[in-house]
Every structure is written in C-alpha cells, then in structure tokens.
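Action item from last week, closing it out:
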Amino acid sequence: MQSSIVVLRTNVQNEIRDEAVRLAEQRMNELRSGPGGFDNADPGGGNLDLVVGTVAYPTVTRSIRNAPMPFTMSKNVVSLDTKSKQVTVTVTWQFQGQQFNHAIMSIVRRYGS
C-alpha cells in the first residue's frame, strides 16, 4: 500500500512539473515572437518585451487531476551587451508544502547595426 502511495505522489509531481515546463516554454515563445522591440516596451500594454528588469506575471491556474494548481511566473531580462540580452522565464509552484520551480533561459541578439 505504501509503495502505491509513493507511485501516485510521484506521478502527480511529474504531471505538475510537465505543466510548468509547458507554461515556461509557451511564455518564452511569446517573448521571442510577440510584439515589443528589443529596447522598447510593448505599445499594446502587454509584457511581451525585452526591457531589462524583472516582471511578475499573474498567477496561472491549471487543473491537474481535477485539482486546481496555481503557478506563478516571472521573466528576467539582463543586458549582456548592446546587441544581446539574456531572458529567463521562471515558473514556481507548491506541492505538499514544498516549493518547486522551473527556469528556462535564452539569449536574444539584435542583428545589423
């Protein structure tokens, strides 16, 4: 019986982590392809930009095995030089009283003059 509980808990943890990975990848893809320039904020008022700094996004709730699971997301943009920026998207969640996070990073480079 004990091993069944451990297996179930591990499966749920994996489902939650997989959703966090999907959320991070989705946000990073939006940042790469969305409006907003290399140096300017999105004129539409969204956070799809590459302005240096940290932005916390609203909490996103997904259903994992019919239970609501809130994920908090943020992005951090650091200027590496005049043509390159490092973008990090972090997703954080709690499961059974423990905090977990998943972060992905990408370098964005401006080409030309």
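Closing note: The longest strand covers residues 67-81.
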